[in-house]
Amino acid sequence: MFYFDSIGDFLAMGGHAFYVWLSFAIVFIALVVQFFTAKNGVASSINQIKQHYRQLERRKASQVSVSAEQSVSHLEKSSEENE
To answer: Residue 16's domain spans which residues?
Structure first.
């Protein structure tokens, strides 16, 4: 039913166990490294996006305060001219 007669034969891989299992280990390590690299990259991208939006919010808030100050000074000038 199976190609190998026992688990020992399976692990020995017909005398090529060193190369077979070394290949599996290298691929597994590469996949683990790739996973964590991608995970850190996504987290870094999310942090950059959040920082960008915070900067935009600060700019909008400063623009609103500047335009509010201009409106107040314009109203003050108008009221002084009407007096």
So the answer is: 7-82
